[in-house]
Design goal:
Gyrase A, domain 2; Elongation Factor Tu (Ef-tu), domain 3; 2 domains; six-stranded antiparallel sheet; five-stranded antiparallel sheet; globular
């Protein structure tokens, strides 16, 4: 039985359209725009290489790209793109009234696959008309995403705070390392080639009071990371992989809670591949 899509109401849609829409985004974002034929995961970074805005981008016709971002950042995202536009022949607009973001949980979906992981399910921007009969199920979607170890901006970290490698963009197809220049490229490329990403988000089970995002996580009294988001007893933690390995398999302390790490096969271990 094919999974029924749910609407992700916390996502807004910004469009970039016109004859130079792709070339404008090409010099800004982490993914190569000429390769965008379906949903792609990407970001606009700070000049220092940290994630400023995170999105899914997909084409709409010949000269329009639609980007879905968290609703709290949509206005600032459109403003930032406009700042970078200069004289490019492109128009930037908030299209949330026209489009919605829908997703399914798991592999059995009629939607295009989520580009981050096939096991995430389907993901697509559709017209509001096509989404009008769908329900919102943010909690089930969040638990599914966190169980797989996939972090998201706003839910698990704040804008301008972490590098793409720490959210595993290198493993989740969020950066095209062979493309031309983009904002923050030098730092991100250096991390990729030197293998200097020490921290990653990993899924955890939370026992006790749910910690706030950003709460320190300790092992044997030593800080080894910080808490991301949590949905009921499932959450994400941004951890130093080397310190996690040194801590062994025991529970971690986070505020009044205990955390148990669930390692995903796609995530590297300390000392393992970082690319």
């Amino acid at each position: 039985m094919t999974a029924t899509p749910v609407i992700l109401e916390d996502r807004s849609v910004v469009s970039v359209s016109g004859p130079e829409a792709r070339s404008l985004l090409e010099r800004l974002i982490t993914v190569e725009t000429e390769k965008i034929t379906g949903p792609r995961h990407g970001a606009l970074l700070t000049p220092q290489g940290k994630i400023l805005f995170e999105f899914m981008v997909q084409p709409e016709g010949n000269d329009t790209l639609l980007l879905d971002v968290h609703e709290s950042l949509a206005g600032e995202f459109a403003k930032r793109l406009t700042f970078y536009k200069l004289r490019a022949k492109a128009e930037i607009a908030d299209r949330t009234d026209d489009f919605a973001v829908v997703a399914t949980i798991g592999n059995d979906s009629d939607l295009p696959a989520d580009p981050r992981l096939a096991s995430m399910g389907g993901r697509q921007i559709v017209t509001r008309k096509d989404a009008r009969d769908l329900i919102e199920d943010a909690q089930s979607y969040a638990r599914h995403r966190m169980t797989l170890g996939v972090a998201e901006l706003i839910h698990d970290f704040v804008s301008g705070d972490i590098f793409p490698h720490e959210a595993s963009y290198d493993l989740l197809k969020g950066v095209d390392f062979d493309k031309g220049c983009f904002v923050g490229q030098e730092v991100v490329s250096r991390m990729q080639h030197r293998g200097t990403a020490r921290k990653r988000f990993v899924p955890v089970t939370v026992t006790g009071n749910r910690p706030a995002m950003g709460t320190d996580i300790t092992a044997n009294g030593r800080v080894i990371g910080t808490m991301g988001g949590a949905s009921e007893a499932i959450g994400l933690a941004l951890l130093r992989l080397d310190r996690l390995e040194e801590a062994g398999d025991g529970p971690l302390d986070c505020g009044d809670a205990k955390l148990a790490v669930h390692r995903q096969a796609w995530l590297p271990q300390a000392g393992g591949a970082e690319h």
